[in-house]
Amino acid sequence: MSDVTRLLEIMAALRDAESGCPWDREQTFRSIAPYTIEEAYEVAEAAEQDDAEALKDELGDLLLQVVFHARMAEEAGLFDFDAVANGLCDKLVQRHPHVFGDQTIESAEAQTRAWEEQKAAERGDAGVLAGVASTLPALTRAVKLQKRASRVGFDWNAIEPVLGKIHEELDELNDEIEQKAAKARLEDELGDVLFAIANLARHLDLDPEQALRGTNRKFIRRFEAVEAGLAARGERPEDVSLEEMDALWVAAKREE
After folding, report:
1. pLDDT in the model for residue 124
2. Which long-range CB contacts under 8 A does 202-209 form with residues at least 24 apart?
3. Beta carbons of 186 and 173 less than 8 angstroms apart
4. Distance from the Cα of residue 111 to its chain's centroid
5. DSSP symbols for 39-82
6. Model-wide pTM > 0.90
7. SS3 assignment, position 207
8. What is the DSSP-derived secondary structure letter of residue 239?
């Protein structure tokens, strides 16, 4: 028995209507989807940490999500795991004619262009922005939308106007703050700022989600250093002033 066959049989046993696990039996596509997203992020975290052992473990958890969805689909008579795998195989072959056909592509950049052209052809007459999933993290979706628009010429070809747009959007947000605007107006203007920041990340060939995850880790590291510094003095963050915590923060930043 192959490992994949064993995995599929275990999943079928977990979903068995009589002898399966009660939790697994009651799940649906919709209830499992948040776990699928969470596992994908945990794969990304392990990859960014260069932790091979964690990556192996997290990839297994993500594979479970694929198997889980496929099993529920098979039970509903929609498709099965083999159909998922075969569909992926067909797509990979179709989108790599330079490997499985007689076309020649000389660089990764040229392959990216060819890949996007193939996907556009598959979308047919749908609009340029069609098919960018609404469930993506907002910054990631912003970059994907911007990339799609850029391919038809809706883009700046220099960094200066991108930076100018960020300053413009910040000024508009500041105006709304000064006018004590309603929350909906502030949210709208803040969204414009974040969209402009995502555009800057795209022009710098950076992933804004990855950049922010890195900053989150840095914040945790430095704040924990603040807590450790206070604990060494027998104090807690809630018992001292912002100035005292900031001094420890600066010290932690210097040590890095």
Report:
1. 66
2. 202/143, 202/146, 202/147, 203/156, 203/159, 203/162, 204/159, 207/140, 207/143, 208/139, 208/140, 208/142, 208/143, 209/137, 209/139, 209/140
3. yes
4. 22
5. HHHHHHHHHHTT-HHHHHHHHHHHHHHHHHHHHHHHHTTS--HH
6. no
7. coil
8. G
Dihedral sign (CA 71, 77, 78, 80): positive
pLDDT at 125: 67
For the residues 96-122, what does the mean pLDDT come to? 76
- How far apart CA 173 and CA 171 sit, in angstroms, is 5
* Count of residues making up the chain: 256
What residues contact residue 187 under an 8 Å CB cut-off, 6+ apart?
Answer: none
pLDDT of 111: 75
Residues 149, 198, 131: CA angle, nearest 5 degrees: 45
Distance CA 4, CA 12 (A): 12
- How far apart CA 95 and CA 91 sit, in angstroms, is 6
Model pLDDT, residue 27: 96
Is residue 216 packed enough to be buried (19+ CB in 10 Å), middle (13-18) or exposed (0-12)?
A: exposed
The set of residues, in sequence order, having a beta carbon less than 8 Å from that of 75 and lying 6+ positions away, is: 15
